[in-house]
């Protein structure tokens, strides 16, 4: 197809505003997917995405649109996640596009991630096409929201299409707008090859599959290619696109978005953000890659079965292909043995990675409680960055500790401003500003410690505003705080993987809550187990887990053997996620106990 008839675009929006549903309608309208094959949220291909109803991964499909002017257009549509933890996926998608369809829920209006995504699109010089969704809802106020978009974002909305992605109303008009308003890719098919790698995954038969956006030149099977950053060279075996089924093509030309396979087995050779060129006629320069993402949250991941350490290592490397923002390095814990300290963009990201490792790689894992990076200034004048509470130097060697702060922007309906302010105050927030957005909503600005945000801030915010507030934040810098390490002792022994760094004034309360929680979670054993929280050797809270009296089998005395077997099996299953630490068996939840406290 002629390059002037190609349109590459992403769909961006705040979470739940209807991106995936709009993508579904577009796939239907263009007959890309046959009706009988259609399922909702078609592009959310991971089980995990379907179960949770959220998009985690970007997903690129090629489709052909017969426009009203009688001509055919080749579209590449990239659906993207909306949650802040996955904004890295969004920024990578955008670099493969010329335009973005900005979906705004006409009942909810502009939300924090609407703004964040618009800024990402503008950073990438994309043409933005605003679309008002959910106009079928009785509470929809498209005119009010249009004005909001004009005021807050500065986008002209006079011609914004009002749609219902659910019913399909006016979705055809969006397709026409894409043809009329979004630019075609500008590259040169005769120039040396430059193909941007924007995603990849590991396929056990074909090796690593890389997703590319061809910015200049043409990519064909048998081509000798080089990854410009890593220097790795391969011969292309197959190229193709997704529709969303995989379709093999004889070439990918300038402006096209697709995949290549080249029997790549070495995971280090493929890096998201790298440029592929030809070995014989190389491009002079690589394309502008991606900004490295710095993890915000760290935790230790350990195999329940120590013998599976190497499997975990391989699984992490393979997963990193598909999730470039994941970071990891080996670490050891006295309590848990050999594992990895992993860095994530947020708690949801951490949760998703853990679950993918367990499902896609069949691992049983213990995750330690999450931590941010602390800057520890020592009495000898040096500074150490600490992402693991257990690694904190002894108190007498510490001069002071700094923790990361974020500038948070919270959009909230007026009636919940008071509740939100209370929450921010409780989370050690510092008030910065409060602006009136319109008749209904206010924009609150706070400086907050990241460690408070990553724990339960989202959940607390949702519950105290009935789900009507939205949050966006970015790291603003480090500040000195009164922080101490709190150790947990079980049976008199410090369990390093349970240590946390806490704000001093909260320590007593947290210590108490933590010991009570652990008492609930850790099953009774043959002997009594004291549970203590301590700061610098001084016990601040204590409770006991009483000794187990009854044998589970006693209940079945005289009973039939199959029931006995079942009980034993059940017990064994329950044990799967337990870790024997010294003489005490600790279940996985114990390491996350800190997350479920007030
Ligand atoms: P995403 O997070 O932006 O991908 O949003 P989804 O496409 O997953 O949609 C979120 C929810 O909104 C789903 O329950 C959809 O069924 C619903 N939804 C999407 N579009 C519309 C619409 O036009 N009208 C109504 N009433 N609901 C919609
Ligand atoms: Mg979605």
Automatic annotation (TrEMBL):
UniProt keyword Membrane, yes or no: yes
Catalytic activity: GTP + H2O = GDP + phosphate + H(+)
Pfam annotation, one family: LepA_C
Membrane topology qualifier: Peripheral membrane protein
Binding site for GTP: 16-21, 133-136
Source superkingdom: Bacteria
Residues annotated as signal peptide: none
Biological processes per GO annotation: positive regulation of translation
GO cellular component, one term: plasma membrane
InterPro entries given in the database record: EF-4, EFG_III/V, EFG_V-like, EFTu-like_2, G_TR_CS, LepA_C_sf, LepA_CTD, LepA_IV
NCBIfam families in the record: lepA (TIGR01393), small_GTP (TIGR00231)
HAMAP family the record matches: LepA (MF_00071)
PANTHER family the UniProt entry points to: TRANSLATION FACTOR GUF1 HOMOLOG, CHLOROPLASTIC, TRANSLATION FACTOR GUF1-RELATED
Protein name per Swiss-Prot or TrEMBL: Elongation factor 4
Source organism (scientific name): Floccifex porci
